[in-house]
């Protein structure tokens, strides 16, 4: 029964994605349509991936693989886990992604190049899942108990440090052109600014990544240069530079790691109270939200000091207008969200102006 469901899941995911994404782009301008598509694509991929993984875990696939792989149990477990993620998670999610390509074609005005779409997807899926496997493998290989903690933390830190380097090398990423370079503000000059090509997926976005000095990156999509004027782009880059300068990237990693520590220690057999440990981890993770939201205000303030509050305000307002940042939202969503609403960020920037 589960095997049949696993076989038809990618087909169903593809068909659902085609229908939903076709509806999402109807009657919208290019950038809005791209934003809606990205959101629908992401939500459907998460749903298809999680549903598929639940099915695969519940099927006999896992046990069969563990039994079939020779050698220590750890190797069998890792191979079974990889199989579950690939068949249950990546395949249905890829089907959703492929189902959204015809809708993308209407936004980008070009026919999809399916082989390159699949190639890109596999690279991104690898960049997202291989790090998790490295951490899980470190955990399985580490000594049990508290002494295993530094091994797992070290593996996780190596992944956080190495991931942007791998993304820059393997992803559709290039160095800025001289014109783009000229927009980079002074405070971001010694960071590795890289432009993510989004020709088929014109979404304005930027992110700070990496924790090792010299290997700290700011990734920015080419669509951001199209969407914002030069001073506003400089403000977004200064905001991302602020995340590096004020050590937000490392702080976010440490906060998440600390929040997950009770769960890890229980899974390693140090504590045997799963329920309190889960409650502690969930409680701590809920505290990470406000901390991350504070780093957003702090990075806005950093950017306002470097390039002027007016540019930062214009960048936020334009991105909110295009539906790329939430303007307002229900309190419950705000509580667990990692980014504050733009209205709050703008009012903080205005306060910032007064001093
Ligand atoms: Zn930020």
TrEMBL record:
Binds 1 zinc ion per subunit. Its cofactor is Zn(2+). One of its GO terms (biological process) is proteolysis. The chain crosses the membrane at residues 77-100, 121-142, 148-173, 249-267, 273-292. GO terms for molecular function: metal ion binding; metallopeptidase activity. Its EC number is 3.4.24.-. Residues 194-351 form the Peptidase M48 domain. Pfam families: Peptidase_M48. The keyword Cell division does not apply. Keywords: Cell membrane, Hydrolase, Membrane, Metal-binding, Metalloprotease, Protease, Transmembrane, Transmembrane helix, Zinc. Belongs to the peptidase M48 family. This is M48 family metalloprotease. It comes from Halobacterium litoreum.
């Amino acid at each position: 029964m589960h095997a049949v469901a696993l076989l038809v899941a990618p087909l169903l995911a593809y068909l659902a994605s085609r229908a939903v994404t076709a509806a999402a782009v109807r009657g919208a301008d290019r950038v809005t349509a791209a934003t809606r598509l990205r959101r629908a694509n992401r939500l459907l991929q998460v749903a298809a991936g999680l549903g598929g993984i639940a099915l695969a875990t519940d099927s006999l696939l896992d046990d069969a693989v563990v039994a079939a792989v020779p050698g220590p149990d750890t190797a069998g477990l890792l191979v079974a886990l990889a199989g579950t993620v690939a068949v249950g998670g990546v395949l249905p999610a890829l089907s959703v992604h492929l189902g959204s390509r015809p809708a993308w074609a209407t936004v980008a005005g070009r026919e999809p190049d399916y082989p390159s779409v699949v190639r890109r997807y596999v690279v991104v899926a690898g960049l997202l899942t291989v790090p998790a496997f490295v951490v899980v493998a470190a955990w399985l290989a580490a000594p049990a108990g508290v002494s295993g903690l530094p091994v797992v933390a070290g593996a996780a830190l190596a992944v956080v440090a190495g991931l942007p380097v791998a993304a820059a090398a393997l992803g559709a990423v290039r160095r800025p052109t001289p014109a783009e370079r000229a927009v980079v503000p002074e405070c971001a000059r010694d960071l590795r600014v890289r432009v993510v090509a989004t020709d088929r997926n014109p979404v304005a976005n930027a992110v700070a990544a990496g924790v090792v000095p010299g290997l700290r990156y700011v990734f920015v999509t080419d669509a951001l240069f199209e969407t914002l004027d030069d001073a506003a782009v400089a403000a977004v880059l200064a905001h991302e530079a602020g995340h590096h300068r004020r050590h937000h990237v490392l702080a976010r990693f440490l906060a998440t790691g600390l929040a997950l520590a009770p769960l890890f220690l229980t899974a390693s057999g140090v504590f045997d109270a799963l329920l309190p440990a889960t409650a502690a981890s969930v409680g701590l993770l809920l505290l990470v939200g406000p901390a991350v939201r504070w780093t957003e205000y702090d990075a806005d303030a950093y950017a306002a000091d470097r390039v002027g509050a007016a540019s930062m305000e214009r960048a936020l307002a334009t991105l909110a207008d295009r539906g790329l940042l939430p303007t307002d939202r229900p309190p419950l969503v705000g509580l667990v969200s990692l980014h504050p609403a733009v209205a709050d960020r703008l009012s903080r920037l205005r306060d910032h102006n007064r001093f």
